[in-house]
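Sample A.
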Amino acid sequence: MPTSRRSLARLSFALLAALAIPTLSACSTGGTSDAPQGMTALAGEWNVLSINGSPLPRSVAESPRRPTLNFAPDGKVSGSGSVNRIMSAVNLGELDKGRITFKPVAGTLMAGPPEAMETERKFTAALANAKAFSVSGNDLSITDGMRELLTLSRARR
């Protein structure tokens, strides 16, 4: 009887090991190597320079809370709308085709100066209408497919 228990224990151990190895090796893959090339180009923080072809108002451009976007390798997006913190995500499957769509933007609900609030409203509307993007060096352009909605510059580290 002890032999059959030992055999059963060895079989159980071998079975658990066989199931655990693929699971553990799947956990080791990750990071930016799995991210689409388009996400690799976008990853990091960007400062908004213009919305709908107009530069940011001076009071907003010089503010420490100027509009920003931060793209994480997993497709999550966060940043500042100019008054409120914002968060969203992009559809990773579209990025390698030069297309970009943002999930509905969520954010904090603070009030601020009227000019900053209007800038934030235009900024989040531009994100909602985004369809395409291009990155050239440290410059990012987001369009609705016809006209430029946002121009951004990569933030200095």
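Sample B.
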Amino acid sequence: MNVVIVGGGKVGSYLASLLLEGEHDVHIVENRPHVLARLHRELPTEVIVDGDGTRRETLDLAHADRADVLVTATGDDEVNLTIALMAKTFYKIPRVIGRINNPRNAWLFTPEMGVDVAVNQTDLLSKLILEEMFETGKLPQVIVEEKGLVQISDKEALAQIVEQVIAENPQAVEDFKGGKGRAIGFLVGQVMRLTKGKANPQIVTELLKKKLSTSSE
């Protein structure tokens, strides 16, 4: 089985090790220097691809064109969704597994967004917060804010970002108007990228659909 893993953190590297032990063909994509240094100590050099997993040239180097499975294992939901859509749209990969970091984004990890199997990190996140509460004595709200887990739900603020994304991505707008459902997922992903994953995806989708429907009248 040919497997591409995007994200060389603990989850990705552990999965790569297990698959290599099972004699599968594995490529793991990562671009953070300190993580790459660790990967080169843990895994064979030939399976490591240094590059941005949201770029086609990087996925080409990882042989995504012949992958049976692609795993998006980064710590960023927007990145994971972008890669999942690319895996299905450009490479037609049969099985895409998406890691969910923020449980509020779970509803986005669907087959329409390119994800066949979603792996929710809710339990891990809850455990992390509880452990930090006991270690530091901080309130959960403080920990959530410090870790950047607070969502942006202000419609006026999000509307400005939506306008920017629509202006910067005319092809995706045309695709949406032409009936390509996955285009909305791409646009939502761009908003999530600009807000570093903090935007409320449901509100973003609502704003995008409203704006795009109005502009097509």
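B remarks: Confidence is low (pLDDT under 50) at residues 123-129. The radius of gyration is 18 Å.
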